[in-house]
Design goal:
Blueprint (H helix, E strand, L loop, with lengths): L1 E6 L10 H15 L2 E9 L2 E5 L5 E6 L5 H22 L4 E7 L5 H13 E8 L11 H12 L9 E4 L5 E2 L2 E5 L21 E8 L6 H13 L6 E8 L2 H10 L5 E5 L3 H8 L4 E3 L15 H9 L3 E3 L12 E3 L9 H9 L6 H6 L8 H17 L1
Parallel strand pairs: 1-2, 1-5, 5-6, 6-7, 7-9, 10-11, 10-13, 11-12, 13-14, 14-15
Antiparallel strand pairs: 2-3, 3-4, 8-9
Helix pairs in contact: 1-11, 2-3, 5-6
């Protein structure tokens, strides 16, 4: 059977995170295409390498009881575990697929080792990396990336890019987008109150998600006499500043945190929401474009969407409401008017029907495999 090594830094235990759902969907797509997949990932108490049956075949535990320290060290830990495995295992892969994880000495060393253990090496770029220009801790990573990225072209055959770039890091790209696994996504069955507006986002939240725009919008809605019940459901990790803003504005009864959830728990929470919140502030990362996994997941579930960033999948999509890409609070009344005018009969089925074969992970990974095979033939 054909084989692939998949380097990833996903939290394999937390399916509230888009990256986790994405990685497992990609793995399943590779399997469906006839590949035996060996992959890496984070555990709650360490790092591990998994076989095609999702069983741990090698792992290292975190050495400290301090979560922040373990978080800072886990990247090096998982890369060194992969290096140990690749050097000791008597195996050769048809190709290796590596999720971009900023360039430095260790990442280049991993690519060099994979080059020896694989016929072909692919790096997936989920975005064109953009670092803050102001001095911050990110500046350190930006400098390392700048110094080391030029070496990547010596080992990488092509970049699977979710961007419009033809060349990244001096390497040709093959264009892909975030896909979905329709079989893993249960269609939406709304269980909330009929007249309530229940907004939802499941993310490893950062400034680019724009949660503050939603929260401030809810505050202004009630300040201006709004009568409808409006709730914002946040599943996954949130920023401390988000909690502080909610407390400051007195919106704890309208804004709900769920933390990390399993996939089945997440599906149940979705059923109590009727509008999905997509990216609202990607300008804070220096771009107005995004190919977000959760946007396609909203469509697969059959949820109407509120968004601000340009997304190809939402072009001419009638069940989405677009706001300006800025830092202003959302106009909640505008969201309510948008939702109220939607025909509710079979709404979820109609929305889900807008997806096609090209929106699936199977199609996207088949694009990667096709490029791999073309290189092999050349």
């Amino acid at each position: 059977m054909k084989s692939v090594f998949f380097y990833t830094n996903a939290r394999t235990y937390d399916h509230t995170l888009g990256i986790t759902r994405k990685i497992f969907a990609e793995i399943n797509a590779f399997r469906e295409l006839g590949y035996n997949v060996t992959y890496s990932g984070y555990l709650e108490d360490g790092v591990a390498i998994f076989n095609n049956d999702n069983q741990v075949i090698l792992q290292k535990r975190f050495k400290f009881n301090n979560d922040s320290l373990n978080h800072a060290l886990r990247r090096g830990l998982i890369m060194n575990l992969c290096l140990d495995f690749l050097k000791s295992a008597n195996v050769h892969y048809d190709f290796s697929y590596v999720r971009y994880h900023y360039y430095d000495y260790l990442f280049i060393k991993l690519l060099k080792t994979l080059r020896k253990r694989s016929d072909i090496l692919v790096v997936e770029a989920h975005s064109a990396p953009k670092f803050e220009k102001r001095l911050s801790f990110k500046t350190y990573y930006a400098l390392k990336d700048y110094l080391w990225k030029r070496k990547a072209k010596h080992y990488v055959d092509f970049v699977a890019a979710m961007t419009n770039d033809d060349i990244l890091w001096g390497i040709k790209t093959v264009k892909i987008t975030n896909g979905i696994d329709l079989d893993a996504i249960r269609i939406h069955n709304y269980r909330g109150k009929q007249d309530d507006i229940n907004l939802i986002s499941a993310s490893f939240a950062g400034p680019e998600h724009g949660y503050d725009r939603v929260i401030k919008g809810i505050y202004l809605y009630y300040k201006n006499g709004g009568k409808r019940n409006v709730h914002f459901h946040m599943v996954g990790t949130i920023m401390t500043s988000t909690e502080e803003l909610i407390n400051k504005l007195g919106l704890s009864e309208n804004c709900h945190f769920y933390g990390q959830k399993t996939l089945s728990e997440l599906q149940d929470i979705y059923d109590y929401a009727n509008i999905g919140i997509a990216h609202l502030a990607n300008h804070r990362r220096g771009t107005n474009y995004v190919s977000a996994l959760k946007t396609k997941e909203y469509i697969a579930k059959g949820l109407p969407i509120v968004y601000a960033c340009d997304e190809t999948v939402l072009k001419d999509f009638p069940y989405a409401l677009k706001f300006e890409l800025n830092d202003e609070p959302l106009n909640i009344q505008r969201i309510i008017d948008f939702y109220d005018q939607l025909p509710k009969k079979d709404l979820s089925l109609v929305i889900r029907g807008h997806l096609n074969e090209k929106d699936t992970w199977l199609y996207q990974m088949a694009t990667v495999v096709k490029a791999v095979n073309e290189i092999r033939k050349s």
